[in-house]
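Q: Two folds, back to back.
A: First:
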Amino acid sequence: MRGISLDPDTGIVEERYAVVYAPRRKRGRFSEDCVQIVESEAAALAAANTSEDRYPARVVGPARSSEGFRLYYLVCWLQD
């Protein structure tokens, strides 16, 4: 993950499962209002709704941008 370092001692920035609102899935980072963190891969798959552009994913975050926004970075989509 470019630009993001995971610190195992803090647990602030972590890799997590999520449902991401993404009208265009070509982006690699998303603001926190587009990301719903869930407990597991199964929960992400169950909560996804592609007709509403809500896709299951693994993300890293939250990280603070230079503009002060909290961002999540895409690790991978769980569905094609």
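A: Second:
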Amino acid sequence: MEALSLTKTDWEERLAAWGQPAYRAAQVLEWIYQRRVRDWREMSNLPAVLRERLETEFPAARLVKIRETGARDTTRKFLFRLADGQLIESVLIPASPALYGEASDRRTICISSQVGCAYGCKFCASGLEGWKRNLTAGEIVDQFLQVEAESGEKINNIVFMGMGEPMANYDNLLRAIGILNAPWGVGVGARHMTVSTSGLVPRIRDLGEQPLQVRLAISFHGATDDVRGRIMPVNKKYPVEELLAACEDYVRLKKQRLTFEFILIRDINDSPEQARLLARQARRVNAKVNLIPYNTVEGLEWDRPDEVQQEAFLKILQQAGIEATLRREKVHDIAAACGQLRLQVEKSVAETPVLI
């Protein structure tokens, strides 16, 4: 395993096996997460022989930024290359002044959990080229570390809503959450982390049994099986009623509110009937609703409703007493949809002629 995938217990056991005293683990972790040093040779309070062994056992394999879009005061998307050459995306999202005030320093990172995706949601660019592999816990953690380093900004919140289905990489996801949450690690509070899922019912139940108070967001996107199944193939395996039952159990166990993410797609799921059904379902599990106008993706046929239709949908929810928000930012210019920047770069590379 790479260094960033190891917990404090893992480090203690590894170093003990190497004949090192117990306190060495705390020293290593301080260098990695508090001082953010990745070169073993710079860890000056470790014995030279230990530094040499660490360098041999854990060669540097950090993410490499190959492209960045957006501006410092707006949403910024980072494209990283992994050690095996695969590409993933991470997004840094500034505070919304409308929600947090002009002076807020709130920053959120949207983290990927897989290279590609196997679930084939019809609105999403992540799965257009299929699933390649799961990310390791260390590759998930490193997105946080690298975006903070690249941006020079403190990140307060984490959402696992980037490329891939987080719940399909469940073990590595939980390990990464533990490292990101731990006081010896990154130290982000569990309630400042949100896991998003397309609706993997067994994993929703598993997460509900976990002691960590991470938040859960459901990619809902359709209030009936007919509509949701057209958008999300996972609905065939876990239909709406089964998903709602799992959400009820999660809320009962966790005593916290869910969020329903609902991408508005013109003439697909933006009707008043869908809004009224969604309001009843959200009330059933005490969920907030986050409406997201569809981001146009090259290669996909759908489009976003006009602003009048977006506002009408929102109004139906609010009049039904549902806490609902509508994301109004226009960020098409940075290839905002998940996986879109990766596909652009891979296509560009594929189309570049090879000179012999």
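Q: And?
A: The chain is about 35% helix and 15% strand.
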